Each structure stands twice: as C-alpha cells, then as structure tokens.
Amino acid sequence: EKGGHEFFMDKEIQEQPQAVEDTLRGHFDGTRIVLDEQRLGEDELRTIDKVFVVACGSSYHSGLVAKYAIEHWTRLPVEVELASEFRYRDPVLDRDTLVVAITQSGETADVLEAVRHARRQRARVLAVCNTNGSQIPRESDAVVYTHAGPEVGVASTKCFLAQITANLLVGLALAQARGTKYADEVAREYEALLEMPAAVAETLTLMDPVRQLGRDIADSKAVLFLGRHVGFPVALEGALKLKELAYMHAEGFAAGELKHGPIALVEDGLPVVVVTPSPKSQPLLHSKLLSNIREIQARGARTIVIGEEGDETIAPFADTLIELPRVPALLQPLVATVPLQILAAEIARTRGYDIDKPRNLAKSVTVE
Ligand code: M6R
C-alpha cells in the first residue's frame, strides 16, 4: 500500500497536490463559496464578529497561516491559539464568535475540550477535520472536511496542506457573507486556489537539491528556521517536522526577532533555513528578509534560502538555494512547506530512523 515508496510519509508527501485539489472540490457552486450549508449558512456567518482558531501541533500552524488571509479578506480579528491553552483560559466568547477547531484526527483531547469550552459559552464551532464521523465534528455546529485521505505517517504532511486549503475556504466564505469582498473577487481567490495543486506538483519536481542538502547536514546539532508573515508559521512547521522525524534540535523564529535573542545562537556552520517571500508581491518584506540573511551569513551560518524561482537577489546570500514556483503571497505556505517536509524526512532517513513512526509519538493524542 506504500505504492512503491519506502515509507508512507514519502507517499503522503507526493499525494499533496491531490489532497489540496480534493479539499477544494465541491466548495464553489459557480458563483459562491459553499461550506457546510446545512449547518452553517451565510446568515449565521454574517453576524460573526470575531474568530478564534484552536488546534495543536501542525494543525495549529495551519491556523497561523490562515490568520493572515482571513484577517485580510474579512477584516475580522482572528486569534489562533493552542487548544491546550485556550481550554484553561477564560476567553471572551459569545454567540457571534466563530471558533474554528482544526484537527486531522478529530479526536485530539485538548481540541475536543476546547470545543466543549467554546460551546458552553454559546460560540459557534466549525470543525476542520480529516476524519469522517470522528468526535470533534460530532460535537461541532458544522464541519468542513479536508479530503487528504488517510494519513499513516505520524508526522502530518498532506493533512497540513489540506488544512491550510480548508481554512482559506472558511476565510472566503466569511468574506463573502460579510460582503468584505465582492463575488468576483471571491471567485478570483478561489481560482487562485485551484492553481495550487499544479504549483505543489511542480514544487515536488524541484526537490533533488533538498534531498542532497538533507544528506549533507544530517550530522548537524541544530537547525534554525526563519520566516516572516506567512513564512513564520512555515518556519515553525519546518522546525516541528525536524524535531519529530530527526530528533534534532530545531527552532522556528519570526525573522524580525533575530536581534531580540535568537541571533546569539548563530555560529560557524549552523544551518539556518530562511523562507523568503516574493520580491514582486512583497518587496518590503523581501528586503527585510534579505538583511536578515546577510546578518546570519556574516556570523558564519550556513544559509539555506527558500525563495521564488527567478529571484536573483537571494542567490548571492544562499549557500543552498531552493526554488519555489511563483504563487500568490498568501498561498506561498502551500509550496514553501514542501521542501521542509522533505528536508526533515531526508535527514531522518540518513540518520537511519523510521520516519513513519518517530519515537515517543502517537498519531492522535487522545489523552492529555
Ligand atoms: O489530529 P490533530 O490534527 O488534532 O493532531 C494535532 C497534532 O497532534 C499533530 O498535528 C501533531 O503535531 C503531528 N504529529 C505533527 O506532525
């Protein structure tokens, strides 16, 4: 069933274009985005005045990615919070609050308790879930399923991309209901999403240098990941993959925080992965990232720069350059995460680990 792959995770990484495509399917009727019509229609969405996203692990990172788009499209405040923190707080919720609970398994204990916590305060709860009939969708007001298919590898890959996709659909549905975007703008955003399976597939063809890099740095003690804007949660996800799979110390930072502490960690030869935005669509952020790369290079870091194809400005600062196809700025995480998954898998493989079943981890965390 591994389809010729050594590990399920390799297969699941390759299935990502399909996961994104299948998650998009059926959510646009030619004029409007459709979420879960029966249980959460436009009338309910229209009155929402605040969004909380609750999740754990990679699912939490997918929520962080979506925050940028949802706030931009809807002008609603979006707070993304670890379910294990949210459930023990006294968050300000009411019936006009939408709580989006993101969970691949639908069984994560802290997410389930966060959902119950939210419902007790009459918030509306929308589950984004990959598992039909699981507990969290059952206890939610509505559900948007990610159609990634079963994910066997303990480290989430295709579900993560499918979650980002579903979260963005939620954002578009909110924008449409609130009228913060015209119907034709929503349709254009949806069309941009429809291009993403091909962009992810193209990214997968560009990964040989990443595998080589994984073999080259497999002995490192630590790896840092830097990003800004939507690249920041991608950096967090890259670090989590590396911890899980390769048992290597890895940290993701917002690149703007470098001088506030993390730069003290940079020493000769330390691999630092930098997720760089498009110079065309995000010139200001791009130039900020360039100065961050210069700063770490000056301190001897081994710079691994992930950036847009044809971006000549980054090449001189990159010890290793990893190119991504050009995609809209808010959608870059769907392609930028792919090399980080492959890097972690390759390092783990080189170290001789079972990438489907990392030590100490379970696929779903149903006890706290
Ligand atoms: O099933 P869930 O999406 O609720 O699981 C959440 C986390 O346990 C999960 O994402 C975990 O962090 C993965 N092992 C990440 O690869």
Please outline the helices and strands.
Elements: H1 8-14, H2 16-24, H3 42-46, E1 50-55, H4 57-74, E2 78-82, H5 83-86, E3 97-103, H6 109-120, E4 124-129, H7 135-138, E5 142-145, H8 158-178, H9 183-194, H10 196-205, H11 208-216, E6 222-227, H12 231-246, E7 249-254, E8 271-275, H13 283-298, E9 302-308, E10 320-324, H14 332-350
Parallel strand pairs: 1-2, 1-3, 3-4, 4-5, 6-7, 6-8, 8-9, 9-10
Helix pairs in contact: 2-8, 2-10, 4-8, 4-12, 8-9, 10-14, 11-14, 12-14
The structure holds 5-amino-5-deoxy-1-O-phosphono-D-mannitol.
Cα separation of the termini: 32 Å
Helix content: 40-55%
From the spread of the alpha carbons, the general shape counts as globular
Bound molecules: 5-amino-5-deoxy-1-O-phosphono-D-mannitol
Count of discrete alpha- or pi-helical segments spanning 4 or more residues:
14
Main β-sheet, spatial strand arrangement: 2-1-3-4-5
Low-confidence stretches: none
Please report which band the strand proportion falls in: under 5%, 5-15%, 15-25%, 25-35%, 35-45% or over 45%. 15-25%
